[in-house]
TrEMBL record:
InterPro entries: Biofilm_reg_signaling, EAL_dom, EAL_sf, GGDEF_dom, Nucleotide_cyclase, PAS, PAS-like_dom_sf, PAS_fold. Keywords: Membrane, Transmembrane, Transmembrane helix. PROSITE patterns: EAL, GGDEF, PAS. Residues 504-641 form the GGDEF domain. This is Diguanylate cyclase (GGDEF)-like protein/PAS domain S-box-containing protein. It comes from Modestobacter versicolor. Residues 650-903 form the EAL domain. Pfam families: EAL, GGDEF, PAS. One of its GO terms (biological process) is regulation of DNA-templated transcription. Signal peptide: none annotated. Residues 338-408 form the PAS domain. The keyword Membrane applies. CDD domains: EAL, GGDEF, PAS. SUPFAM superfamilies: EAL domain-like, Nucleotide cyclase, PYP-like sensor domain (PAS domain).
Length: 922
């Protein structure tokens, strides 16, 4: 230990203040050197020791006093209180020895004098310091401690009486004789007080109290040697007194160094009587009785005081034994009650607790006889736990046991244990509490010898494991078809890619149903679900057992084929043939029982390469699928065959479309609508164009479906509404009587933002609502009839004109015209094909015009490209015309000039034929 040793608290104690350095080694070394030097001086030069010896003792005591004062000033007030009293005690001892040095009476005065007053005054401060130490403990002094102290006090009194009687050999006749007897008596009292202090303090300060007891024992030696020297002065007695004095100071130093301070947590104090105090009291009692009996046998008479004291010792010892018996009975009842509580707790708990000894044998199992494993306590106890663990899980058990010193490392380990009926339920380690690692290896575990065993807390996770498996199945299974879902397919593709790295060939087939949207739109989603289930069943029956078929979502399926490209393509052809037969009536309540849908599929095939990530493989298969769609559907295409211009163009457009609006690549053009009666331009239709920096001008027929598929149609049409109404406002400000037509996508209606977007565009531009015509297609009413009714009626109530565009192209029904707020019908260009020569086509056009007249709905014929069509439409009574013959899509800058320069003579026939370019994106 160095000179700057730090006083370390007892483990478990909570000191109130930081640990203070105490120069223990330095002080002890100096005190030992002083004791040796003083003993040599008293033995060699006894004449000088009368002044020198007490002066040395005074200086040593004063130095210790100064050190104690400096030390206690750095402690908190409560922790320093006992040592403050002992500092005063050391000061009084130093004062008494200083007076003795001045008088020259030596360390053992033969008569009473002034030097005795400070020494007697120090006794109360010793008692005060001990009282403050005891008071710092939360437990206090029990009756058992008092009994032990009384036994020790009486025993010490008898021993001193016998000793002094043998030394003095006379009765007390003077003050000097009284002092000779009183000092040993005070020493016995201090030893008793030290014993009480040792038993009464808390566990944290018990070491300090033990050194203090040794200090008081040294005081007893000083008093006894002083009493002997008062009768028979000798240099040996002086040496004993000086050495015991230095020992007293040294033990006091050790007591201060070992004190951690008063604990702030009452739970740190343990209500227990130290066994050492009991041993001392019992040994003292029986030692005194044996001493008196031995003296009596040797011929020494037993004095009345000694007989009474011996009897009192026997009575006190008897009472102490009764108290011990009562404590034993009480503790036994407490242990039994605690054990009953413990057994009730562990037996009613869901977890199982298994106690293992140092050899890995089971000593106790909380689930014995009551748990589902079925084993009884007799069948388990004494057997190794490794006898019950499944051989495949022995590594997990070994890891849990080896990590016993660190409970967190053993937590969560799962292994199977054999039950009595032969099952293998699975258990999970909740906690592994170790009193040490197991002796010897357990199934390969490296453990340390010298331990008392382990306590395992296990949880039966069989039910939880089944639930986890079910949740895992649900997480990787499509709820409708029962096929693996996208997550499971992605994992399977990852495994197939790994196998491809080892030389095994694998391919991915991507399938998309052709004609499925019509099933949902016309027969309903229930019919679509039934169709998907049938497709899934046919795919299961067609693919091989080693192949994985799954559903990606919607009407998209995928197959992971463990074969090369040729074999996978052949499988795709078989799937194509099988699904081409899905011509089924849909047994949906309320649907037409004779309604039959022709559903086929398109398939893209790609080979999995180790160098390609899974998303790359999926993208390649998707490109092949798009090529199959572009080739007319109901066919198979490989990824290597997809490098045609149409596919490359579509892929490039899909990639660049998201940034087209922000880069200013989109623009609007306007095509005039002419009135045959008014003989002028009455309206404009806004048409969006995309000026691609590489591919040139792109028509809406190409990029609008891409915008709908990628979720970009709403911001695109919002921009169209704002731009078109702003430019119309400029034309209206120039006193032009015009209406503006804007095409509306069904996806915009489905988003629920159409009404607020239209209102915002009208408010921002200041265009009256009656000037805006919203052109919708029939598919909008088929897919979203309820929303179409509500939102279109709201727009109609605002004053907007509702136009039914491409009338006759889709699933036309007159019921929509009677129910919905339609103001304008726009006949599809296909109606005009052959109108000049085919009377049936002309009759059909006439019926639509007549229908509009009877329903008060204006009819617009679009796609007028020849003078013959114009003349025939005028003959049939169509008042509103649109087409390349009357006006091409025009940029906003030239629009005013085109409107003003319209030649009404175009409406007068007959006219010479004109060359008309094929319309693009009208």
């Amino acid at each position: 230990m160095t000179a700057t040793s730090i006083s370390r608290p007892v483990p478990g104690a909570t000191p109130l203040v930081p640990v203070i350095a105490w120069p223990r080694a330095t002080v002890l070394s100096l005190l030992a050197a002083v004791a040796v030097g003083l003993a040599a001086a008293e033995a060699v030069w006894p004449e000088a020791s009368a002044h020198l010896a007490p002066a040395v003792l005074a200086a040593a005591s004063l130095a210790i006093c100064v050190l104690v004062v400096r030390h206690e000033r750095r402690l908190d007030r409560v922790s320093a209180a006992p040592w403050r009293a002992f500092a005063v005690l050391a000061l009084l001892l130093a004062l008494g020895e200083a007076i003795a040095a001045l008088r020259g009476v030596g360390v053992n005065a033969t008569s009473a004098g002034w030097q005795d007053l400070p020494l007697l005054a120090a006794i109360p401060f010793a008692l005060l310091g001990c009282a403050r130490l005891v008071r710092s403990a939360a437990t206090g002094i029990s009756a058992r401690v008092v009994l032990d102290a009384l036994v020790a006090l009486v025993a010490l009194g008898v021993l001193l009486d016998v000793l002094l009687d043998a030394v003095l050999g006379r009765a007390v006749g003077s003050v000097d004789d009284l002092m000779a007897l009183g000092y040993p008596a005070l020493g016995a009292v201090l030893c008793t007080v030290g014993l009480v202090t040792f038993a009464g303090v808390g566990e944290a300060r018990r070491i300090a109290a033990g050194w203090l007891l040794a200090c008081f024992a040294s005081v007893g030696v000083v008093t006894v040697s002083g009493a002997i020297a008062a009768v028979s002065p000798s240099a040996a007695a002086d040496v004993v007194t000086g050495t015991a004095w230095m020992a007293m100071l040294a033990f006091g130093t050790l007591a201060i160094a070992a004190d951690p301070g008063q604990s702030t947590d009452p739970d740190d104090e343990v209500a227990a009587v130290p066994l050492l105090g009991v041993v001392i009291s019992y040994c003292a009692a029986f030692g005194v009785v044996l001493l008196l009996l031995g003296g009596r046998i040797a011929g020494r008479p037993i004095e009345p005081f000694e007989a009474v004291a011996a009897s009192l010792l026997l009575v006190l010892t008897f009472v102490r034994s009764l108290v011990w018996a009562a404590d034993g009975a009480r503790l036994t009842r407490q242990v039994l009650r605690t054990e009953a509580y413990f057994r009730t707790l562990v037996h009613s708990a869901a977890d199982i607790t298994i106690v293992l000894d140092q050899h890995g044998r089971i000593t106790w199992d909380s689930g014995a006889g009551s748990h589902s494993h079925g084993w009884t306590a007799r069948e388990l106890e004494g057997r190794r736990l490794t006898e019950f663990v499944h051989q495949d899980d022995s590594t997990e058990l070994a890891a849990a046991l080896a990590a016993g010193a660190d409970p967190d490392q053993g937590r969560g380990r799962t292994f199977r244990l054999r039950s009595r009926d032969g099952r293998w339920p699975r258990y999970e380690t909740v906690r592994v509490v170790a009193s040490g690692a197991l002796l010897g290896p357990v199934r390969g575990a490296d453990v340390t010898a010298g331990s008392a065993g382990l306590v395992l807390h296990l949880r039966d996770v069989d039910d939880r494991r089944e639930t986890e498996l079910e949740l895992e199945r649900m997480a990787y299974t499509d709820y409708l078809t029962g096929l693996p879902n996208r997550a499971r397919l992605m994992a399977a593709l990852g495994n197939a890619r790994s196998r491809a790295g080892e030389g095994e060939q694998s391919c991915l087939l991507l399938l998309d149903l052709d004609g499925f949207k019509a099933v949902n739109d016309i027969a309903g989603h229930e019919a679509g679900d039934l169709l998907l289930v049938e497709v899934a069943d046919r795919l299961r029956a067609t693919v091989r057992d080693r192949d994985l078929v799954g559903r990606l979502g919607g009407d998209e399926f995928a197959v992971v084929v463990r074969a090369g490209l040729d074999e996978s393509t052949a499988l795709a052809e078989r799937i194509l043939v099988e699904l081409a037969g899905v011509h089924r009536s849909v047994p949906t309540p309320g649907a037409d029982p004779d309604l039959v849908f022709d559903v086929s599929c398109s398939i893209g095939v790609t080979e999995l390469h180790p160098a390609d990530e899974v998303p790359v493989a999926v993208r390649n298969a998707d490109l092949a699928l798009r090529a199959a769609k572009a080739a007319g559907k109901n066919c198979v295409r490989r990824h290597g065959e997809t490098a045609d211009s149409a596919t490359v163009r579509r892929t490039r457009l899909a990639r660049d479309l998201p940034d087209a609006l922000s880069r200013g690549q989109l623009r609007l053009v306007y095509q005039p609508v002419v009135g045959t009666v008014e003989r002028r331009v009455l309206g404009l239709e806004a048409l969006v164009r995309w000026d691609h920096p590489v591919l040139g001008e792109v028509s809406p027929d190409e990029f609008v479906p891409l915008a709908e598929d990628d979720g970009l149609i709403v911001p695109l049409q919002r921009w169209v509404l704002e731009q078109a109404t702003a430019e119309l406002a400029g034309l209206l400000a120039e006193d032009r009587d015009l209406q503006l037509g804007v095409n509306i996508s069904v996806r915009h209606l489905q988003s629920g933002s159409l009404v607020p977007d239209v209102a915002a565009a009208l408010a921002r531009s200041g265009v009256p609502a009656g000037r805006l015509m919203l052109e919708v297609t029939e598919s909008l009413f088929i897919g979203e009839p309820d929303r179409a009714d509500g939102d279109l009626q709201t727009l109609h109530d605002m004053g907007c004109v509702i136009s039914l565009d491409d009338f006759g192209r889709g699933y036309s029904t007159f019921a929509y015209l009677a129910r919905l707020p339609v103001d304008v019908l726009k006949m599809d260009r296909e109606f005009l094909a052959g109108i000049e020569d085919d009377e049936r086509s002309a009759a059909l056009v006439h019926s639509v015009i007549e229908l509009g007249r009877r329903l008060s709905i204006d009819v617009v014929a679009e796609g007028v490209e020849t003078p013959g069509q114009l003349a025939r439409l005028q003959e049939l009574g169509c008042r509103y015309l649109q087409g390349f013959l009357l006006g091409r899509p025009t940029a906003p800058a030239q629009l005013a000039a085109v409107i003003d320069a319209f030649d009404a003579g175009l409406l007068d026939g007959p006219l010479a034929p004109v060359e008309v370019a094929v319309p693009v994106g009208e």
